């Protein structure tokens, strides 16, 4: 369908474009910005005066829960929630049942995502078989089946030598490895950041060193192996500084942070609400401020939802017995807009961290508005507001932000020129 979008403020962080212009879409691709192509006749027109047109958001961690955990979510429900949050491209982690360590699982996920049609899905393959950290998964076969990167989640490798071999093998084929740096033994049994809040509440702590010790080791192995590496879910200011130092040394490393880590601190746990039970944990105000500065400077180039939907029962037990994780992809845009509202980031920089930054980190064909490229476009009203949860598409309602009035409202999400969500 030939579509024109009239009068939007077009922001494309990848090219630095920021101007009021019209967009023209044909054959699923963006055919022009500004001037209509010769002979273009629109079949559909979207009036976008007062709206911002940006590249569709790219979320590097959205648990789709399928296959294996359909009580928590499905590919159809969670990709629709993603589209409602302005996301057109997302990566799903390998924590499924069975684990995403075979081509068959990758193909199942991709087939069901295509059937749903709400957003483009890029699977993250398991780095080790069964995520057990002992034997390397069949990485090349997984790559050929559509996996864009490989990781082991928070499951540690049994020893550093095996991990080193895995990284060297990945480097041989120019594959990207995703690290969730947390030392299993330092974090074991912990529920919250080791500090004053955890002590006051009587919760077992996870020290900052659980992240920094593992991160330092992982960076040294990256340097030795030469692998392309992305560090996911950073939680500490010192962790962000380690990434900055590595980048300064010329290491090919990128990083992301969970959006909720830029907003919340461990003080949110004071009422023992399991909605704040996440792994790795919420940390201190100083850590949050350090992460914010790293996002502002570009050391952390991607903000992700780290969406983990859960059924109601998973969050009803006492704090320590509940399952960690927060449902957040549907709120990615409005929740991120609070960072603009608070004066931390300007709008083009925020959109860079939500689109071109994550796309470049994992080399995804997404995150830009450019003639000839896929028409994956977000149209939103920066002046309107969203009441979180008023319309809710994810199966998981485990978000502490439900009921909050948040800035920004997604009006249209377009995937390959087709409207996949209209708000």
From TrEMBL:
<dbReference type="InterPro" id="IPR024403">
    <property type="entry name" value="DHOase_cat"/>
</dbReference>
<dbReference type="GO" id="GO:0006145">
    <property type="term" value="P:purine nucleobase catabolic process"/>
</dbReference>
<feature type="domain" description="Dihydroorotase catalytic">
    <location>
        <begin position="52"/>
        <end position="236"/>
    </location>
</feature>
<dbReference type="InterPro" id="IPR004722">
    <property type="entry name" value="DHOase"/>
</dbReference>
<dbReference type="Pfam" id="PF12890">
    <property type="entry name" value="DHOase"/>
</dbReference>
<protein>
    <submittedName>
        <fullName>Dihydroorotase</fullName>
    </submittedName>
</protein>
<dbReference type="GO" id="GO:0005737">
    <property type="term" value="C:cytoplasm"/>
</dbReference>
<dbReference type="GO" id="GO:0004151">
    <property type="term" value="F:dihydroorotase activity"/>
</dbReference>
<dbReference type="GO" id="GO:0006221">
    <property type="term" value="P:pyrimidine nucleotide biosynthetic process"/>
</dbReference>
<dbReference type="InterPro" id="IPR032466">
    <property type="entry name" value="Metal_Hydrolase"/>
</dbReference>
<dbReference type="GO" id="GO:0004038">
    <property type="term" value="F:allantoinase activity"/>
</dbReference>
<dbReference type="InterPro" id="IPR011059">
    <property type="entry name" value="Metal-dep_hydrolase_composite"/>
</dbReference>
<dbReference type="InterPro" id="IPR050138">
    <property type="entry name" value="DHOase/Allantoinase_Hydrolase"/>
</dbReference>
<dbReference type="GO" id="GO:0046872">
    <property type="term" value="F:metal ion binding"/>
</dbReference>
<keyword id="KW-0665">Pyrimidine biosynthesis</keyword>
């Amino acid at each position: 369908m030939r579509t024109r979008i009239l009068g939007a403020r077009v922001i494309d962080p990848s090219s630095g474009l920021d101007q009021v212009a019209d967009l023209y879409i044909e054959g699923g691709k963006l055919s022009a910005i500004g001037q209509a192509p010769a002979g273009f006749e629109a079949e559909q027109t979207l009036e976008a005066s007062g709206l911002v047109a940006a590249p569709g958001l790219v979320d590097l961690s959205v648990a789709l829960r399928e296959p294996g955990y359909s009580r928590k979510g499905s590919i159809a429900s969670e990709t629709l929630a993603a589209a409602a949050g302005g996301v057109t491209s997302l990566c799903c982690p390998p924590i499924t049942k069975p684990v995403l360590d075979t081509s068959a699982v990758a193909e199942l996920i991709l087939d069901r995502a295509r059937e749903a049609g709400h957003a483009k899905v890029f699977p993250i393959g398991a780095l080790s078989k069964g995520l057990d950290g002992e034997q390397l998964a069949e990485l090349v076969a997984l790559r050929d089946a559509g996996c864009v990167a490989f990781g082991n989640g928070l499951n540690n490798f049994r020893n550093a030598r095996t991990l080193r071999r895995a990284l060297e093998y990945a480097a041989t084929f120019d594959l990207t490895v995703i690290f969730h740096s947390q030392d299993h033994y330092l974090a074991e049994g912990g529920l919250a950041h080791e500090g004053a809040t955890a002590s006051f509440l009587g919760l077992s702590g996870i020290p900052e060193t659980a992240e920094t010790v593992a991160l330092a080791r992982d960076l040294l192995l990256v340097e030795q192996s030469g692998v392309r590496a992305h560090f996911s879910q950073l939680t500490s200011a010192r962790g962000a500084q380690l990434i900055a130092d590595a980048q300064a040394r010329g290491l090919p490393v990128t990083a992301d942070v969970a959006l909720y880590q830029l907003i919340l601190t461990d003080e949110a746990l004071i009422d023992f609400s399991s909605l704040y039970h996440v792994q790795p944990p919420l940390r201190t105000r100083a850590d949050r401020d350090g992460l914010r500065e790293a996002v502002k400077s570009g050391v952390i180039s991607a903000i992700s939802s780290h969406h983990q939907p859960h059924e109601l029962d998973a969050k009803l037990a006492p704090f320590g017995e509940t399952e960690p994780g927060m449902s957040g992809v549907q709120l990615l845009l409005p929740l991120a807009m609070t960072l603009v509202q608070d004066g931390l980031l300007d709008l083009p920089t925020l959109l860079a961290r939500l689109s071109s930054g994550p796309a470049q980190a994992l080399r995804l064909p997404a995150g830009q508005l450019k003639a000839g490229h896929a028409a994956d476009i977000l149209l939103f009203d920066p002046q309107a507001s969203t009441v979180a949860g008023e319309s809710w598409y994810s199966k998981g309602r485990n978000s502490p932000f439900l009921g909050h009035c948040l800035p920004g409202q997604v009006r249209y999400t377009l995937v390959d020129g087709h409207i996949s969500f209209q708000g």
